[in-house]
Amino acid sequence: MNPVEIITAKRNGEELSPDEIRYFIDEFTAGDITDYQMAAFLMAVYFKSMTTDETVALTVAMLESGEKIVFDPESKLYVDKHSSGGLGDKVSIILAPLMAACGLKVPMLSGRGLGHTGGTLDKLESIPGFRTDLSIEEFKAGVESIGCIISGQTPDIAPADRRMYALRDVTGTVESVPLICSSILSKKFASGPNSIVFDIKCGNGAFMKDQKQAEHLGKSLINICKAMGKGSAFLVTDMNQPLGQAVGNALEIDEAIAVLQGNAPADLIKVVLSLGECMLTMGQVASGEHALELQKSKIDDGSAFEKFLEMVAFQGGDTKSLTKKSPLIPAKKVFLVKSEEAGFIKAVDTFRLGRLIIEMGGGRTKLGQKIDHSVGFIIHKKIGDEVAPGDIIMEAHSSGKPPDDYLVRAFAGCIKPGKEKIKEPKLIKQQFK
């Protein structure tokens, strides 16, 4: 087979055979197909898409490019969760220890920032000493002993995805359903869960801009899971504004801790509990109102936060830094963004807010770039809220660049006021079990 012919075929919209897809992934993993050839292939898929059969073949090839973690295949307790990405989405950091406190086993392989969205691993690395590079043996031991682990891919787990994921982030090929599905599922299945719950974000701050796109992604994931013998469910949740209040790596850890200690923004805890109810149902631990009450009880009695501290300690993190009332990583500068007019917030440019975080150093524009964990913002006014001149709408945490006056104008420009009050977006748009 010839890699150029495969790239050309996909560029022309032809359906690739499983053998062609397997060859391309195997040769890329072995180093015989270059990064620039893979980048061309990714762009061809972005424009021409893939059939379900092609996407299943791609997922399997990426999954089998490395080692797989295997837990008890008969147990329903091994349940994972994945988000398609949004701004302020620290749900995994809250949900994994909460589910472990409820009795599930959560083997979670997560990623770094992708496009304008933050990455769970980047957020957790705000914690001094926290390791996201656990070996397969450490990962398995942590899941079995603690009940949850959030780590990154080792070089041995879905290595094809590891390299493709990084390339997608810097080649403008993130928003492709086949690439999203194969990336998610290859590493998720490699970590050993028997079922997965998906949080499909929808809105101007998500990769899926409207509900139809989000449902298409959710159903595509469900179909692939079904073909591979795995349980699955999905929720479509709103991302027309940040989730919770904090956005930025260390700031989101601070907010996740607050939620685990019982002090949660209403929108954030609703998404957490809704996803948790799905996970507990799939794990056959609890369902419906019982599942919701079980989760609330584990937050109220402190066991969810204790489980988080156990996970952090197991992964080498400094738990003392998480029990202080001061910010985890204070920013060099904190300044307020205030409203200049009276009215009601009618829209938030969530995508632009995500790009501003990257401009501030909190995200990447090239492979391997170091990020500033301290930068970000806290949003005080959201869609539907009333504002008066001088009201604080945001609190920006900066390292000093870009200049303060630029950031004030840029952040203020992301919050769109209007004269009439509007309803805030529906948070849970669809639930598919």
- Per CATH, the class of the largest domain reads Alpha Beta
Per CATH, the architecture of the largest domain is 3-Layer(aba) Sandwich
Low-confidence stretches: none
CATH H-tier superfamily of the largest domain: Nucleoside phosphorylase/phosphoribosyltransferase catalytic domain
Mean pLDDT: 93
Assess the beta-strand content as a share of residues: 15-25%
Describe this structure in words.
The protein has a 4-stranded mixed sheet, with helices on both faces. Strands 6-9-11-7 form a 4-stranded antiparallel sheet, sandwiched between helices. The chain has a 3-stranded antiparallel sheet with strand order 10-8-12. It is of the alpha/beta class and 433 residues long. The protein folds into 3 domains: 3-48, Transferase, Pyrimidine Nucleoside Phosphorylase, Chain A, domain 3; 79-322, Pyrimidine Nucleoside Phosphorylase, Chain A, domain 2 (3-Layer(aba) Sandwich); 333-418, Aldehyde Oxidoreductase, domain 3, CATH 3.90.1170. The protein is globular. Helix content is 45%, strand content 15%.
How is the secondary structure organized here?
Elements: H1 3-11, H2 18-30, H3 35-48, H4 52-63, E1 79-83, H5 91-102, E2 106-109, H6 120-124, H7 136-146, E3 148-151, H8 159-171, H9 177-190, E4 195-202, H10 211-227, E5 231-238, E6 246-247, H11 249-260, H12 266-282, H13 288-300, H14 303-314, E7 333-338, E8 343-348, H15 350-359, E9 376-379, E10 386-387, E11 392-398, H16 404-413, E12 415-418, E13 428-432
Helix pairs in contact: 1-3, 2-4, 3-8, 4-9, 5-11, 5-12, 5-13, 5-14, 8-9, 9-10, 12-13
